Amino acid sequence: FEVFAFATREVRSLVEEFREVDEPPFQVLALHQASKLIVERIRDQIGYSDSRLPVFNSDQIGNLGPASIPGWIAMATNLVQGSEITAIGYGSGLSWGLVKIIWGAQQNEVHYV
């Protein structure tokens, strides 16, 4: 229960801070995929909706822990080059973070780093 309370409280605050400096805040929102209940609660709290992309897909790929956002992105077939993805991670050690990504990869493209 405490993790649920933490995530829904802190992520909502983080999003509100981000909205103050970046309007409009989200073209595409990628949330950490640990719990469908948490993902849907955060989505509802911040008033986000996108009928093209589901906000939760770990029911298809399982909980990948820290790789859940990249896993979600890999499953998002409707991303186009130039899409702005706001990714929000939370959980481990009751921590959280937010990053904005400009999508530039082609589907099924491999990048070596």
Fold blueprint:
Elements: H1 2-21, E1 28-31, H2 36-46, H3 58-61, H4 68-75, E2 84-90, E3 96-102
Parallel strand pairs: 1-2
Antiparallel strand pairs: 2-3
Structure in words:
The structure is a single chain. By secondary structure, this protein is an alpha+beta fold. It has helices at 2-21, 36-46, 58-61, 68-75, and strands at residues 28-31, 84-90, 96-102. Helix 1 runs parallel beside helix 2. The longest helix has 20 residues, at 2-21. The mean pLDDT is 78.
The parts where pLDDT drops under 50 for at least 5 residues are none
Structural class: alpha+beta
- Inertia-based shape: globular
Mean pLDDT across residues = 78
Oligomer: single chain
What labels would you give this structure?
113 residues, alpha+beta, three-stranded mixed sheet, 3 strands
Short overview:
The chain is an alpha+beta fold and 113 residues long.
